[in-house]
Amino acid sequence: MRCDDMGKTAEQIENELQIIGALQRGLNLATAALLLTGQITIIGVFVTPGGFRPSLAGPLTGDTRLEGINGNQAATTLIDVIDIGLAILLIADQIRVTGSFIGSARFTINVSGPIFGVPKPVPTLPSIRRESAFFQKVVSRHFNVDPEVFRQEGSFN
C-alpha cells in the first residue's frame, strides 16, 4: 500500500527517517569528539527568542581556538570545562548540531537543544525534499550541472 505522493510505503519512509537520524547522530558524536580533542571550542553564543545556541569553531573550521587573554590559565580552563560539558551533552543526546554559519574562509558549528530553550531538531522528509530541491536548482543553475544527475535513484525527489 502506498501512503504518500512520492509512491513510498510507510516502511520505506520510516527507513529513510532512521537513516537521516543515524547521520545526525553521527554528526553529533563527531562534533563531541572534535570538542574533546580541542579541534573546536566554543567561540560565542547566538541568542534567539526563547533560547540560545552555542557556536563552535577552531583551526579545523578556519578559525583560531579560543583561549584566555594573555595566556590566562583560569579562563582557558573554564573554556575547556564548557567544551567538555557541551561534548557530554552531545553524547547524551541532550543537545544536537542545529546548523552552521558560513563566513569568509571559515565556518562555525551551532549546537542547541531543550536544555538551552531550543527544540531538538528531528528528521522530517518534507523539509529534506524541499531543501534538496532548492539545492539541486541552485547547483544546476550556478555550477552548470546537468539536472538529470539529481534524478538518480536515492535522491529525495
Characterization of the model:
- It is a single chain.
- By secondary structure, the protein is α+β, with helices and mostly antiparallel strands.
- Helices cover about 40% and strands about 20% of the residues.
- The chain has three helices and four strands; from the N terminus they run αββαββα.
- α1 (about 10-35) runs antiparallel to α2 (about 75-90).
- The protein starts with 9 loop residues before the first helix and ends in a 15-residue tail after the last helix.
- The model is unreliable at about 1-5 and about 155 (pLDDT under 50).
The number of helical elements comes to 3
Shape: globular
Question: For the terminal residues, how far apart are their CA atoms?
Answer: 20 Å
How confident is the prediction overall: mean pLDDT?
Answer: 81
Gyration radius from CA atoms, angstroms: 19 Å
Provide the spatial order of strands within the biggest beta sheet: 1-2-4-3
Beta strand count: 4
